[in-house]
């Protein structure tokens, strides 16, 4: 299976470092953004990115702004995994209604993130049959 390009969107440098190392070790190509504005710009410029790992609380534009923009402009083109240290039941339900694939609470295990990315890949593979 071809490893997709992943965009990691978080304002925490330690999260970027830990998850990037794990994802690259698993064979994924990782792009980075530290806020919502950077995420949207990156995704508009590079349509090869199919999976987005998205923090909810960030400066400039938050994760739900990014999620709403992606769904409006790209439909379900991107698989989206939410990671947050501020998860609530309401936030999780809103994410589910907007087609988020997974909702992980920080501190997040790199293994859990990789499992969520693999689940998106498996679902995409089934869609293409």
Give the SSE map.
Blueprint: E1 5-9, H1 13-25, E2 29-33, H2 36-45, E3 49-55, H3 63-74, E4 79-84, H4 89-97, E5 102-105, H5 110-127
Parallel strand pairs: 1-2, 1-3, 3-4, 4-5
Helix pairs in contact: 1-5, 2-3
InterPro entries: CheY-like_superfamily, Sig_transdc_resp-reg_receiver, WalR-like
Protein name: Response regulator receiver protein
Keywords: DNA-binding, Phosphoprotein, Transcription, Transcription regulation, Two-component regulatory system
Molecular structure report:
With 129 residues, the chain is an alpha/beta fold. The protein has a single domain (5-89, 102-127), classed as Rossmann fold (3-Layer(aba) Sandwich). Helix content is 48%, strand content 21%. It has 5 helices and 5 strands; from the N terminus they run βαβαβαβαβα. The protein has helices at residues 13-25, 36-45, 63-74, 89-97, 110-127; strands at residues 5-9, 29-33, 49-55, 79-84, 102-105. A 5-stranded parallel beta sheet has the order 2-1-3-4-5, with helices on both faces. The model has no long low-confidence stretch (mean pLDDT 91).
